[in-house]
Write a structure and sequence with these properties.
The protein is mostly helical. It has one domain (12-173). The protein is 79% helix and 0% strand. It is built from seven helices and no strands. The longest helix has 31 residues, at 143-173. 36% of the residues are buried.
């Protein structure tokens, strides 16, 4: 049972980790909702904001090294899904059968390339792109590009926030950086 004794187990790093993850998600949302539209001239969508925030959360890990590693993993899986979907949507309309076929190819591609840990992320990326493309057929071919941009923003902010927080907390409490 979770009780007051567990609260005493929280360290300053734990609290800083939780607060900084929340800040990283808020920064990602702000960038996606307010900054990016001003820079590129198109409105952000709820899927884009969500995808970027998910990427931020995914790469925000307990150590800087783990965050960087998760960022590379997320980028590899996203790029595989991006490439497969871009090729497919350039030739064919988005369908659920197409999504299934692409997930099969994507998972096998990750296994063959020696990246079996990225199979789930690749499948999720393909599913999101294809589902959004099915609901927006006139701009289906744009979806892989948009999700790639969303992912890059989320990864960048998540990893940067982890690195900055580690340095700041180290300066404040003097414990070794994580």
């Amino acid at each position: 049972m979770w009780g007051m004794n567990n609260l005493s187990k929280l360290s300053a790093w734990d609290v800083a980790y939780a607060i900084d993850m929340a800040i990283a998600c808020l920064v990602t949302s702000w960038v996606m909702i307010f900054l990016l539209p001003r820079l590129v001239g198109w409105h952000s969508t709820s899927v884009g904001v969500l995808w970027a925030v998910i990427s931020t959360v995914f790469v925000y890990k307990d150590t800087r090294t783990h965050s960087l590693s998760a960022g590379m993993s997320r980028l590899i899986a996203t790029f595989a899904g991006f490439a497969l979907c871009l090729i497919y949507l350039s030739l064919l309309p988005a369908t659920t059968i197409g999504m299934g076929a692409l997930i099969t190819v994507g998972v096998l591609l990750m296994i063959i390339s020696g990246r079996p840990d990225e199979t789930g992320l690749t499948a999720i990326t393909i599913a999101v792109i294809m589902i959004v493309a099915t609901n927006n057929p006139q701009d289906a071919w744009l979806q892989p590009l948009l999700r790639l941009v969303d992912t890059l923003i989320g990864i960048s902010i998540g990893v940067a926030c982890k690195w900055v927080a580690s340095f700041v907390i180290f300066r404040i409490i003097g414990e070794q950086m994580r």
